[in-house]
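Example S7 (structure tokens).
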């Protein structure tokens, strides 16, 4: 990628950070170790180079320190889980379905009924979910569980596409990537971590539904521009750059620019929809609390779009020197096939 022009994503939302990044980073490291992860110097160095705490700090700048620590755990799961499929497992859809099914079961199985000897990532995810739903409204818990299920199940679609080997069309691609991006879950945690809940009547209006779709697609397009150099050699086909390059018969540099244009066009839609929200709130006779929740939700979506892009320009995760040869697993630890005692800590 060094001799290919990377387009600039001029995302017109303010960048904010959190003063609690250092604290949340330390809490996250302790928790990962308590679940049997980061057991080697190589794994620790690799993980720290991504800076999950900074990503959470950009994405959840309004969180207090303990809520930000929950956000860092969420980011850690996303990326550690994702990398487990950058090896032989990711080319066996049946095994991927079994792994993801075990995690989906966690969402609907009380802690006391879960089996002993879970893998580190399953154990960690169970802890993350238990802490996430604590004190939350049943409606939020149901929605969050559904979005986690979509995220996890989407990895099966990616594995099937990888085995098939053909770059999919845009609509097929979006169905897979919108799940794998996990952005609906991130928006759920924007409420959880921010301590507010958007009223259902306005949450499901066309305006907020379309704004959420933008907040999903923009990070996908940004990420695919930065990660295609790592994904293409590994045979990953669910990448917007590859889709656009094939569908529109473009060279790589023009495809990168076109994906940037798709992201920026969606942001224009987001800004226009935001202008409609005061009338939507008035039409629903929302009180001050409901309007405040809507405003905070919009700010959360903006923080995620702007913050994620800032992080991906800074992290070592997408640096050329961090790219692992395609024949080697793209992870330092196997976190899905190790049996051990369930941790006693949170």
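Recovered sequence:
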């Amino acid at each position: 990628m060094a001799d290919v022009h990377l387009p600039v994503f001029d995302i017109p939302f303010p960048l904010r950070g959190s003063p609690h990044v250092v604290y949340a980073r330390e809490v996250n490291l302790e928790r990962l170790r308590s679940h049997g992860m980061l057991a080697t110097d190589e794994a620790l160095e690799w993980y720290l180079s991504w800076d999950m705490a900074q990503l959470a700090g950009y994405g959840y700048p309004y969180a207090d320190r303990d809520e930000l620590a929950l956000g860092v755990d969420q980011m850690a799961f996303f990326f550690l889980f994702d990398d487990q499929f950058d090896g032989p497992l990711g080319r066996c859809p049946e095994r991927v379905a079994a792994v993801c099914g075990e995690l989906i079961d966690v969402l609907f199985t009380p802690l006391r009924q879960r089996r002993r000897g879970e893998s580190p990532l399953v154990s960690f995810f169970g802890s993350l979910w238990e802490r996430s739903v604590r004190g939350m409204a049943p409606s939020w818990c149901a929605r969050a569980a559904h979005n986690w299920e979509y995220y996890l199940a989407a990895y099966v679609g990616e594995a099937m596409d990888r085995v098939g080997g053909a770059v999919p069309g845009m609509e097929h691609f979006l169905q897979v990537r919108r799940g794998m991006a996990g952005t609906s879950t991130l928006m759920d945690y924007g409420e959880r971590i921010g301590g507010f809940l958007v009223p259902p009547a306005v949450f499901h209006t066309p305006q907020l539904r379309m704004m959420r779709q933008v907040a999903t697609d923009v990070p996908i397009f940004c990420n695919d521009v930065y990660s295609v150099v790592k994904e293409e050699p590994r045979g990953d086909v669910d990448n917007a750059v590859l889709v656009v390059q094939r569908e529109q018969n473009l060279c790589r540099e023009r495809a990168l620019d076109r994906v940037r244009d798709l992201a920026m066009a969606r942001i224009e839609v987001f800004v226009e929809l935001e202008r409609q929200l005061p009338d939507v709130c008035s039409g629903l006779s929302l009180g001050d609390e409901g309007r405040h929740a809507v405003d905070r939700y919009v700010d959360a979506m903006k923080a995620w779009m702007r913050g994620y892009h800032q992080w991906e320009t800074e992290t070592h995760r997408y640096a050329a020197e961090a790219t692992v040869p395609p024949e080697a697993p793209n992870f330092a630890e196997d976190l899905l096939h190790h049996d051990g005692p369930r941790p006693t800590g949170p």
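Notes on this example. The CA atoms of residues 121 and 335 lie 6 Å apart.
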